[in-house]
Amino acid sequence: MKVVIIGFGLLIYLSTVVAQTCSNERYIDSLFGVNVSYNVEYQQAKPYGSLIDLPYHMDIYEPAADTLPLRPLVIFQFGGGYLIGDKLNPPANDYCSYWAQHGYVCAAINYRLGFNTLLSGSAERAVYRAVQDLQASLRFLVDERLIYGIDTNNIIVSGNSAGAISSLHSTYMDVDQVPGSTSGFGFGLDSDDLGGPFSSGNTNFGNMEVKAHGVISCWGAMLDTNFVGDRPDDFIPIIMFHGEDDSAVMFTSGHPFSYPAFPILYGSQPLKTRMDNQGILSKLIPFPGAGHEPELLNPAYLDTILDESSHFIYHEVIRPEITNVTGQIFPYLNSTETYTVFADDPINYMCVSSMTGNIISQSANQVDVEWTVPGQDTLQIIAVNHILANDTAYLPIEVDNLTELNSVHSNDGLLVFPNPSSGIAYLENPQGDVVTVSVHTIDGRLVRQWSNSAMRIEFNLSDHPRSAYVLQIQKNNGDVKRQLLIVQ
Length: 488
What we know:
Elements: H1 8-15, H2 18-21, E1 34-45, E2 54-63, E3 71-77, H3 92-101, E4 105-109, H4 120-143, H5 145-148, E5 150-160, H6 162-172, E6 214-218, E7 238-243, E8 253-254, E9 265-266, H7 268-278, E10 282-287, H8 299-318, E11 322-326, E12 335-343, E13 349-353, E14 358-362, E15 366-371, E16 375-384, E17 390-399, H9 404-410, E18 415-417, E19 424-428, E20 435-441, E21 446-452, E22 456-460, E23 468-475, E24 480-486
Parallel strand pairs: 3-4, 3-5, 5-6, 6-7, 7-10
Antiparallel strand pairs: 1-2, 2-4, 8-9, 11-12, 12-15, 13-16, 14-15, 16-17, 18-19, 19-22, 20-21, 20-23, 23-24
Helix pairs in contact: 4-6
């Protein structure tokens, strides 16, 4: 569950956009222009082949005229084999502009390049330096979050090729898994100790690790699949794209470019297998017949990457997921019922609608509905979090045409006990009438149904989840009683 701190000013802002937020498609549709802050320095660090620290910069893309105080962050690292590349190289501008148009902040960063192509350890050090630089850029943005309107509870790291390799290692490689080559070997340019993964480049955020909440990997790979899923903080959603015929960074595994001096890397296919085995939420989109970074020549690939990524990140990372709605789904005519909404992210407000019910009052996660028309209805509930992402639940309703007073009177003598129950409960049926008992989940799904005429009827729900259930008890004469049973 995410922990979110929300200021008073943000709450005032949110109260003014309820109707708009529940009808638009922020994060899914392109709604904004783009403002770019070019060449923002985020660190000074010593690259391969230099005796002094050099400045490194990022370009920060923001949605223009967006008044939301905090937005999710996507950070992008370009490809180029750790030898060439720049934050303005394609597809960085199109990539980051897309995310800004959809309501995100996107930062494209430069990072340190260069290594000895004859030494496997030197290549490992290049990856490690890029991981250090990614962490330095994240620390900088965390400290500058109010200037750029960044919600640090929703950070997505992404990259192409070398940038994806860095993003994956930053996410899954822990301090005790760092290759020994990073501490230095031999003489000359690779002899120095590169230091810890969070201590390079700047002193922002107390030189602590900044963890991602989602990952987008294009043509990526890792030194070891066992890095994935071996720690509790590895379990974050990830989407991967890879050409099945990629000869630079293999879809399966192998030396990059088939060059033996480079370390063996494990591509998206074995990474996906590892993630599935470990229970990590992941999606792999392979491109049959495609090689390395085909989007540079064919924009259709980039369109697919951006469309698939934006939907995946929205649904699996930034939106609140409604986990339960409690309340009476078989209300009596002219009754007022309270419905409470639970989600995996704090709910700031809701948009609730019904065809026949009257919305009497509502708070952040509760709504009171008066039911004045008998028959079937659906209660639509849209729950919105602090960054205006939302989830929708539909609760089926059947309004009984009896009033509650008449219904209780007509079924006098029927008693369900104990309530709450550990799973086994009884219905007292002193008249010995034939009754039909139906057990429903709170959202209206039938769990079990049977008829009996015993004076004490046992029913066992111990093999079902602990939850609230709705019992419908109907006599042969048509009298109906409905009651909530708690199984705990």
